[in-house]
Amino acid sequence: MKKELLLELKNVSAGYSGQNVIHDISLLIDEAEIVALMGPNGAGKSTILKAIFGFITHTGSILYEGEKIYPSPQNLVKMGVAFVPQGRRVFANLTVKENIEIGGFSLNDEIECIRRAEHLMHLFPILSTKQNEYAGALSGGQQQLLSIARGLMTQPKLLLLDEPTLGLSPKVVKEIFKTIKDINEDQKTAILVVEHNLHSLLPITDRAYVLAHGKIVASDTGGAIAGSDILEQVFMGKI
Ligand SMILES: Nc1ncnc2c1ncn2[C@@H]1O[C@H](COP(=O)(O)OP(=O)(O)O)[C@@H](O)[C@H]1O
Ligand SMILES: [Mg+2]
């Protein structure tokens, strides 16, 4: 089956206080695809996600389903994009179930919200067993899964995930990647994921972009990137 183009960035530049930190970024995400965005600290990965979601302004073009868009978080949610930012942001004093349901507040439909939350529990069995516990009592990995589950409540076509495995043990990292793959297969969600766990991520990606100093320096299939020395060069600071 041929996949349709979902999101395209053409020559996008953006930054802070009038100073660009990402330059001329062009990238593509097809529907139901997993795309990785990689690069050292400070390369501009989070800034790209913030520009896509409309947290910061940009120059150049962002196209969604072939049409130029002017991103703002509310519009993006309506269009079917969800953003799970860096850091595990859960409401510690609410239960797991309540945290998930909050992700659907924009639906304005309590019954639909409960239905979706129940469906999501199947994708996240560990959250299902802990649904009445306080989110603050969960482990780091479980809190990360919870913030991803919350992001899925709007049934996005595209999920933006910023460093979902930061600070987690290798075993938990594996679980998070499995969940990402399950979401992609079960819900046909396209996922743009920022990651530093390159070797665990590349096998499940359709495409990967490597970023250095705010510019894309390589793009290819996950396999081709894994087989080249581009990541080593970038992470050693040679590019
Ligand atoms: N809110 C901000 N205000 C000013 N500069 C920022 C802000 N956030 C990030 N930066 C700068 O932008 C550059 C890219 O940062 P970022 O996109 O967070 O990188 P990455 O996610 O790849 O680690 C860095 O030099 C960082 O210091
Ligand atoms: Mg970042």
* Domain count: 1
Structural class: alpha/beta
Largest sheet: 6 strands, mixed
The CATH homologous superfamily = P-loop containing nucleotide triphosphate hydrolases
Number of strands: 10
> Which term fits the overall shape?
globular
N-to-C span: 37 Å
Mean pLDDT: 93
Radius of gyration: 17 Å
Number of helical runs? 10
Cross-sheet strand order for the largest sheet: 6-7-8-3-9-10
Instruction: Please report the first level of CATH classification, the CATH class.
Output: Alpha Beta
List segments where confidence is low: pLDDT < 50 over at least 5 consecutive residues.
none
Pfam family, one: ABC_tran
Keywords: Amino-acid transport, ATP-binding, Nucleotide-binding, Transport
InterPro entries: AAA+_ATPase, ABC_transporter-like_ATP-bd, ABC_transporter-like_CS, BCAA_Transport_ATP-bd_LivF, P-loop_NTPase
Protein name: ABC transporter, ATP-binding protein
